[in-house]
Amino acid sequence: PDGRRTAAVDTMTEIWSGKPPANRCPVIEQIELTGPLKVNSGDRVQVRLLASDPDGDKLKVRWVVTGEADSYSTGGDAQYAPPEIKEAIVKSDLSGATITAPEVSGIYRVYAYVDDGEPRGVATANVSIGVTGSAVRLGNQGKKVQLPLVVLDEPGTHPYTPSGFMGSATAVKVDDACATAAKSGAHCTRVTYDREGDWAGVVWQNPANDWGSKAGGFDLTGATALTFWARGGSGGEQVKFGMGLIGKDQPFHDTVKKEQMFTLTDQWKLYSINLEGADLRRIKSGFFFAVAGQGKPVEFFLDQVQYK
């Protein structure tokens, strides 16, 4: 992944030039599990490594444990790299590694990267382990972020984009630079729905415009609440708010869905959706609202939407 050359490059060099490079890449002669191919979570797994260097250079090794990829692309398409599980490695050196099997069920890969200290030369190999655990593995977990995480506040760059329009989409407008009596700062977000019937909604997404076909989202583990300030244009507006709209029928779904109907007043009020105990490992639709026609156009305002 960092661009270092492997033995395949050395081979091509020799074919094209007629002689091998001055310093050749190291060689992994063997990598294997010393025990069963399937283990239980918490079991210790021993991986044996045999590596050498054709030039006699001193070697060092880096060990990496990841989950197995959920799907495989073809034709050179970009593919999401599963995150490293650093805590799984108990000890490691050039002769092998001791791994603690993760608590989540699934297939895992143990990689060895052997480096000879020369510029850009490396050998790599891997072995797989099947783990039976107490929980189901989530492939392509969201990016871990620090809390609190602000979803919506002053205009600017935010982790989620209001790109997912639903229902009567042309009837709803979102102005995130409204300067009308913001709760804090210079701006708030003004939402208008100009129909007396039907319904519409907007989802703040990551990646933008994605409904579950792409990897992304954020790991919000540790958050206990989604909070936001809201007020109605005249009071009495009923609006549903929530997070996690992408269902498990999609390959890259939200790990939890929460929603709640609120009746707004004409004054700013802090609202909260409880997230205690929720699985927040991948939240791609970080915030949404849905509003139905209420016999007249609806207007409401939002400010300081965040995960705490």
Keywords, please?
6-stranded antiparallel beta sheet, 4% helix, 22 strands, 308 residues, mainly beta, 1 helix
Protein topology:
Elements: H1 7-17, E1 27-33, E2 38-40, E3 44-52, E4 60-67, E5 89-93, E6 96-100, E7 104-115, E8 122-132, E9 135-136, E10 143-144, E11 149-152, E12 161-167, E13 172-178, E14 188-193, E15 199-205, E16 218-219, E17 225-232, E18 238-243, E19 258-263, E20 269-274, E21 285-292, E22 298-307
Parallel strand pairs: 2-8, 7-9, 10-16
Antiparallel strand pairs: 1-3, 3-6, 4-7, 5-6, 7-8, 11-22, 12-15, 13-14, 14-22, 15-21, 17-20, 17-22, 18-19, 18-21
Structure described in brief:
With 308 residues, this protein is mainly beta. The protein is 4% helix and 46% strand.
Describe the structure.
It contains 1 helix and 22 strands. The chain has one helix at 7-17; strands at 27-33, 38-40, 44-52, 60-67, 89-93, 96-100, 104-115, 122-132, 135-136, 143-144, 149-152, 161-167, 172-178, 188-193, 199-205, 218-219, 225-232, 238-243, 258-263, 269-274, 285-292, 298-307. A hairpin with a 2-residue loop joins strand 5 (89-93) and strand 6 (96-100). The protein is elongated and about 80 Å long.
